[in-house]
Every structure is written in structure tokens, then in C-alpha cells.
Amino acid sequence: MPMEPRLIATEEAFAPIEYIAEYLKLSERIDTAASRYLAIYYRKQEMVHQLTELDFRIDEMDRFGVDMHLLGITGPGVQAFEAKLGTELAVIANDTLAAAIGRHPTRFAGLAAVAPQDPHAAAREIDRAINTLKLNGIIINSHTHGEYLDDPKFWPIFEAAVANDAPIYLHPTFPADSMIGPYSHYGMMGALWGFGADTSLHAVRMIMGGVFDAFPTLKIVLGHMGEALPFWLGRLDNRYHNILRRGGLEPLGMKQLQRLPSEYFATNFWMTTSGMMTDPPLQFCLDMFGPERVMFAVDYPYEQTAEAVAFMRNAPLDAATMRLVTHANAEALFRISPV
Ligand code: MN
To answer: pTM to 2 decimals?
Structure first.
């Protein structure tokens, strides 16, 4: 029987215990819809164990045949705090990751946490995380206190990412406090709906704000089959082009882009299967962007490894596409050594 292809899962959550402790302290001081929601999770012993005891998950990986976790700090991560504490916790998170990778170099790779609250400190931490700790990329849990990365004050982060050729995983968090109202009922603020709504908003802000014209080699990874954006690209192009043709860019406060919105997806974006376990969206992403831009992910511990692996192993893909999606794209993008 042929060997099953190597399986690298690319959006796997962890948290240093120091982060959990600081978040619980914060949630006692600042009462928001998000902090109430998260405090429920962070008071569950099992969840804290899964997030903080990094070696614990290896049993589950072995049981279901996941070869490697690309680890990233769970949302909102260090972005929940003021700049100084967020920056300190990013250093702790990245040192924790590097130590875990040192213990299990064939089982773990890692995305560096950074605190955009202090963009210059974040840029320095990117340099340290990539060059000294040899981490594989960066994770940013969407907005930071309601501010999005299209704001040029955050662009030192992009300069550092591009200089280090480090991809940024734009991972979800709860919608900002300023707009969480309509999301706060029926459990809709989290992964059920709010996460994807906020992260797709963030990615579209970056495109329309000209981020990829300023940083043509910036690499962004979106989870959840591209946070629904693949389905929406034709409409972004259509409306952008329509407004452009009618001379409406300036009155609407829009930027003249160098390319159509969808075209940045062909050069600057990758997407993962995290939390999405049905064939048609996978096929749609592959049809839209080709097999080089899609990667497998579970979203441990929030999704079930068994279910995600069964979905991936049974997906109706040819052998070459299966190889790319299960591991080869992740190896190339995140500079993970092939076995
Ligand atoms: Mn996730």
C-alpha cells in the first residue's frame, strides 16, 4: 500500500499559560461581550490544558495521522492588551514556541505572535522570531482594539514581514467592540459567524487600502477556505471597476489600485481548510486559485482532528493536488523541511 502523504496542519492554536492568566485578569477588569465569551473557555481546565501543554496534543496527532502542527497563538492573543504587556507576552509566546519546536522539530513548526499596538516593537520581534528563533511566519489575530492593518501606522510590520519573506496568517478574532452589537446574540460573535465577518472585512480593507500595491511581495494566509472571499471576488472587481469607470473613486474616498481586487489573490494570498470540512468549497477554492494556494488545517483544539483528517484524506483530489494541499504548499510557504 502506498504511504499516505505527509499531513501538515497549518492553523493549530496554542497559548502560553502566562497569556491565559493575563486574559482572565483582564476579563475581570474589562467586561466586554468578547471577554465574557472567552472567560468561559479559559476557565475550562481541559481547554487550557490543550492550549498550554504543548506536548499533550502529540498523542492526538499520532492517533489520527497528523504529522505536524503549525502552531499559532489563539485569538485575540497578545492583541487584547495594552502595548507594553502585549509586546512582553509576544516574546513569551515566541520563546515558548521555539522551545516546543526544539523538543519536537519534526512535529511542530510555529507562527510568531506580535503586538501591533507597538508597530516598531512588533517589527523588531518579527526579526527576532524569524532570524534567531527560526519560526516559520507570523500570526495576527485580525483587528487590534478596532484598528486594521490597512492603517499605515502598522506598516512597519509589513516592512519586516517582507524583508524576512515571512507570511502573515491573518487569523480571526471577535468583531471589534465598536460593532459587536448585532453579532452578540445567538452565539454569533465567535466562529459561527463573527470571526469570518471580521477577518474578511480586514482582508478587503487591506486590498482596497492599497497594502498590496505598497508591498507587492507581502504574503497573507486566510483560514476557513479564504473567509468566504473566494465566493465574493467577482463582485469586488465588478463594483470597483464600475465605480472607477464612472469617476467615483474620489467622491467615495476610494484608492486607485494598480490591479483589480481579485488579482491580488493570485499573488498575495493563500488559504487553508481550517474548520471547513465539505468538498464543494475546497473544490471551488482549487478551481479559483489553483492547487498551489490551498493548505490543510484542523484548528485544534476547537475542531475535531478525526473529522478534519477524514475530510482531507477522502477529498476527491488527484495525487498531485493532494500532495500540495496536505504538505507541499505548507513546506514551501512556511519553509518547513521536507521529510
Ligand atoms: Mn483558528
So the answer is: 0.97
